Amino acid sequence: MIYLDNNATTKTDEKVLEEMLPYLKEEYANPSSMYDFAKKPAMAIQEARVKVRDFLGAKSEDEIYFTSCGSESANTAIKGALNCNKAKKHIITTKVEHPCVLNTYKEFERQGYKVDYIGVNSEGQLNLDELNEKVTKDTALVSVMWANNENGVINPVAEISEMVKAKSPETLMFVDGVQAAGKIPMDVKNTKIDFLGVSGHKFHAPKGIGALYAKSSARFVPLINGGHQERGMRPGTENVPYIVGIGKAAELAMDSMNYELTEVKRLRDKLEQGIIRNVFNARLNSSVKERVPNTTNIGFEYVEGELILLHLSDIGVCASSGSACTSGSLEPSHVLRAMGIPFTALHGSIRFSLSRFTKESEIDTVSEKLPSIMDKLTQISPFQDELSKLRELKR
Ligand code: PLP
Q1: Cα(177) to centroid of ligand 1, in Å?
Q2: CA end-to-end distance (rounded Å), the chain
Q3: Ligand 1 atom nearest to 145, measured from its CA
Q4: Residue 217, SS3?
Q5: How far is CA 375 from CA 222, 301, 366, in A?
Q6: Catalytic annotation present for 100
Q7: What is the per-residue pLDDT across 182-235, written as a single tens digit (0 to 9) for each?
Q8: For ligand 1, is residue 176 a contact (CB within 6 Å)?
Q9: Concatenated DSSP letters for 74-101?
């Protein structure tokens, strides 16, 4: 099996699992209890909080809250901030956010909020002038993702936070950092970002654990009501093993950041260049330098993405299509549509996402095997004239 779908989820690192196991077995005490048996899990939570603080570059561990996933972090920040201060009714986000942000914004839109959705160019880069223009003193919240899950494009979120606060110091800013975490360095204290969400399963912790950074000055109300856990902002008995897991995963991600930025990027570039060179109907959907090092999105013209995925799956390769197949529909992805990817490549776009566990031999296998898959699929495409022209152009 060749796993190239690390933006969907990652393999849990063995070292993460090892660190978690004692808390799934013998160290099962409720960390809030008074006896000595509860001290170790209570301390383990604090240690994990410090690791996540360092991973995100927060000033204090008191700015870190553990959640169940990236979606919960986004919902907590957006709903928590807007429900805390209902005076302003204008909010801004981008057209290419993950549904956990877009659908939360839609809910506020239904409640009567005015929402501006900022567009991107053909390379997936955000229109910063449009964003700057839309921010006013009446803007309650701006949400911009750090890196896009489909094309890997990085938004200059530090610069954006400066820009937003320069126009309107009281406007809050949420950053969905789910696809940036573990792939590029994060140093939130040197930005004007108020909230930042991450998800453990995207950087080799298991599924079911996330974190939210909330700057000490940023006010929000909790999503759920309950006890005192996470300083009352995320009640519910702590998921100690998974909190320990995200802490260890954060530590390992910091240790391997250099590898990610050099070696993972080298392999991604090799895969990208190999495919573009060898497959006549392939086009890069974004080629900007400002992309996370593990992601590439390639459009295969006049071929159905689902068919490509099935053929890849037959040879043991896991990748993902641009279609919103998670929703069971074959609607082309909202991200690729916002980029204006031509219709001819929209349905045949495939995302390959690597990790620090990806081997060079795996990349070589995919580059070698894709041309024959594409030969088969182009033969059954109804667009034979267009494909012949493309073949001629590539010669
Ligand atoms: N934000 C982005 C950019 C994502 O890619 C994802 C997951 O794919 C999420 C948020 C949601 O994270 P989770 O699955 O942990 O809720």
Answers
A1: 9
A2: 33
A3: 3
A4: coil
A5: 54, 12, 14
A6: no
A7: 999 999 999 999 999 999 999 999 999 999 999 999 999 999 999 999 999 999
A8: yes
A9: HHHHHHHHHHH--S--EEEEETT--HHH
